[in-house]
């Protein structure tokens, strides 16, 4: 896809903004208006609305994951400390790239219409690709000897993911979450303390 850099950035920024409404509720007319281009040029560069949406989703994930794995310290082998590090990094990246996170949140919580199947497949692929890397080489010797290490790791993942999913709402914007970060971190630390007491030596 040969596209002028300025036009490409305008299209991607406009599309990201529009798609925060959800795939079904977004309009290519609004995207071309915001980007200052013709609809013909949009489709020439990106194909259909679906093609643009999926391209933007992949672009956003690659950008965030690339920076995330550049920053995370995988030498920290305590899985609970590593998970806390993940949460703090995510908050930092949300502040740095609010538009990208608003888009990604809308993708995972919104009505995705005929791209829902593609998004579900990508969610599964994302977990398969990221989680093994994120939780590789953790120090299982920290865990109690009388429990299965993999089940202990599963409990940690299910607990922390479950809490994060409970806190996310399609009605909230990133600005709504801003005043909640301190409470969120306190509750995360409380769960980490409880998990450490239950699962560690």
From TrEMBL:
<dbReference type="InterPro" id="IPR023772">
    <property type="entry name" value="DNA-bd_HTH_TetR-type_CS"/>
</dbReference>
<feature type="domain" description="HTH tetR-type">
    <location>
        <begin position="5"/>
        <end position="64"/>
    </location>
</feature>
<dbReference type="InterPro" id="IPR036271">
    <property type="entry name" value="Tet_transcr_reg_TetR-rel_C_sf"/>
</dbReference>
<dbReference type="GO" id="GO:0003700">
    <property type="term" value="F:DNA-binding transcription factor activity"/>
</dbReference>
<feature type="DNA-binding region" description="H-T-H motif">
    <location>
        <begin position="27"/>
        <end position="46"/>
    </location>
</feature>
<keyword id="KW-0238">DNA-binding</keyword>
<dbReference type="InterPro" id="IPR050109">
    <property type="entry name" value="HTH-type_TetR-like_transc_reg"/>
</dbReference>
<protein>
    <recommendedName>
        <fullName>HTH tetR-type domain-containing protein</fullName>
    </recommendedName>
</protein>
<dbReference type="Pfam" id="PF00440">
    <property type="entry name" value="TetR_N"/>
</dbReference>
<dbReference type="GO" id="GO:0000976">
    <property type="term" value="F:transcription cis-regulatory region binding"/>
</dbReference>
<dbReference type="InterPro" id="IPR009057">
    <property type="entry name" value="Homeodomain-like_sf"/>
</dbReference>
<dbReference type="InterPro" id="IPR001647">
    <property type="entry name" value="HTH_TetR"/>
</dbReference>
């Amino acid at each position: 896809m040969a596209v002028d850099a300025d036009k490409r950035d305008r299209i991607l920024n406009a599309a990201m903004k529009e798609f925060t409404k959800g795939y079904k509720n977004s309009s290519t007319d609004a995207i071309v208006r915001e980007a200052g281009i013709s609809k013909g040029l949009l489709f020439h560069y990106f194909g259909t609305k679906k093609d643009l949406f999926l391209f933007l989703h992949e672009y956003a994930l690659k950008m965030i994951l690339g920076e995330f794995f550049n920053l995370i310290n995988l030498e920290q082998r305590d899985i609970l400390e590593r998970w806390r590090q993940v949460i703090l990094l995510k908050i930092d990246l949300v502040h740095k790239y609010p538009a990208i996170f608003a888009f990604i949140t809308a993708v995972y919580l919104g009505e995705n219409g005929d791209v829902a199947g593609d998004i579900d497949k990508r969610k599964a692929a994302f977990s398969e690709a990221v989680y093994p890397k994120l939780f590789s080489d953790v120090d299982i010797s920290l865990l109690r000897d009388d429990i299965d290490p993999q089940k202990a790791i599963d409990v940690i993942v299910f607990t922390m993911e479950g809490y994060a999913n409970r806190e996310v709402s399609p009605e909230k914007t990133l600005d709504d979450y801003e005043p909640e970060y301190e409470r969120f971190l306190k509750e995360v630390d409380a769960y980490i303390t409880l998990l450490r007491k239950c699962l560690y030596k």
